[in-house]
Design a protein that fits this description.
With 408 residues, this protein is α/β, with parallel strands linked by helices. It has two domains: 2-180, Acetylglutamate kinase-like (Carbamate kinase), CATH 3.40.1160.10; 261-405, VC0802-like (2-Layer Sandwich), CATH 3.30.2130.10. The protein has helices at 16-36, 52-60, 69-93, 125-130, 159-169, 203-211, 219-228, 281-291, 321-329, 360-370, 394-405, and strands spanning 2-8, 40-46, 98-100, 109-110, 119-121, 136-140, 143-145, 151-153, 174-179, 200-202, 232-236, 244-247, 260-264, 267-276, 296-301, 309-317, 337-341, 344-350, 377-381, 384-390. The strands form five sheets. The chain has an eight-stranded mixed sheet with strand order 3-6-2-1-9-11-12-10, sandwiched between helices. Strands 13-18-20-19 form a four-stranded antiparallel sheet, sandwiched between helices. Strands 15-16-14-17 form a four-stranded antiparallel sheet. β4 (109-110) and β5 (119-121) form a beta hairpin. α5 (159-169) runs parallel beside α7 (219-228) and α6 (203-211) runs antiparallel to α7. The longest helix is centred in the N-terminal third of the chain and has 25 residues, at 69-93.
Length: 408
Amino acid sequence: MYRLVQKFGGTSLADLDAIRHAALRVKEAFLDKQQAQADVKGLVVVSAMGDSTDRLVAQTQAYTSNCQQRDYDVVLASGEQVSSGLMALALCQQNIRACAMQGWQVPIYTDGNHSTARITDIPQKNIVAAWRSYDIIVVPGFQGISPDQHITTLGRGGSDTTAVALAAAVQADICDIYTDVDGIYTADPRVVPSARCLDQITYEEMLELASLGARVLHTRCVELAMARSIPVRLRPTTNNNEGTLLQQEGASMEQPAITGIALEDDEAKITLLGVQDRPGVAAQIFTPISEQHISVDMIVQNVSADKKTTDVTFTVAKKDLASCMKVIKDCPITYSALRTDANVAKVSVVGRGMRSHAGIASKLFATLAAHGINIQVISTSEIKISLLIDQSNGKAAVRHIHKAFIEQ
Ligand code: ADP
Ligand code: ASP
Ligand code: MG
């Protein structure tokens, strides 16, 4: 049996014509496989149409006081419910035996963390039973059901994760994620028009790029694909290009110094000046922050000049800035000043090739220096370097780095 999972993002389902077009892509892929193999079954995962989730979020904001996250999820999940029904209807019109199954019918079990729920289990039983009567089952992305039977959502962009989790559950032969670009590019093609589409990328590099701001794939979808070795392909909805295959590192894969560049402008910088330089202070700052479930990204602590005080700088998501400031103000530490800056951007370069190419960091710093861009914070790992700069320089920095490393 050949099991095919296809996911269509909101950008590919903007209106009824777009849904019809996506249904034709499903039919095409299904019939194509059927010619080679008799027993083909498919799962189609859909996002909400166009920007309808943004509109649903805005509607919930009319009632913010004492808002129950549970009801927020009821509203948000409705976008995918509509598109799943419409996709099933469009497929039936194409004479494909298709039906829609909602998250609770599959069921897609999640934990109870509304609006950021994680998938815990997807039993195959109901899908396999439905495949006895239908060839394609359409499932709304982004939603599941909590242990106490409430609708949950997985976090913005979460339909990618639904697709990969379903692919894992049914041991799919391929998980094709259709979107509005030809594949994974060396940088966001909207920012760098000369960016190149990659034929393949390792899970590890894609995971870094996604978590560093390349929103083309949901980070948790890449994490899951990597953990379960699911073959995932990012493909265009509007043409037949093969797209980009996510895979394990192969001996024959090229190792350019830099595979891709990501830009994140959703972070804010916090600096504590004149913090006491003694054991335990960092823990006193960061423990209460983590207890509030605030993720801290880059952290820099300066070497103390007088051996008494030091400065600590770190970044959090912009949405967490106000609550993080409250935590710090309640923190029993002394400091001489507290500064914040929400006008920052993080530019990151990612590549397995960094393990074998020397001098990437110095070339990167020289590239920004040549264009008068000041670097505020630097953080590195084995296959990435991230730089925090002024937000107004973000896109230009990506273009300069792309030119220096990828277009030379
Ligand atoms: P969908 O609605 O299909 O989920 P998204 O908007 O979530 O689509 O993701 C596709 C977008 O991701 C593209 O339009 C592109 O602008 C952006 N993007 C960011 N970084 C990259 C990259 N490295 N390669 C390709 N696309 C990228
Ligand atoms: N519709 C949701 C969103 O816009 C989930 C998704 O599209 O992946 O975030
Ligand atoms: Mg997306």
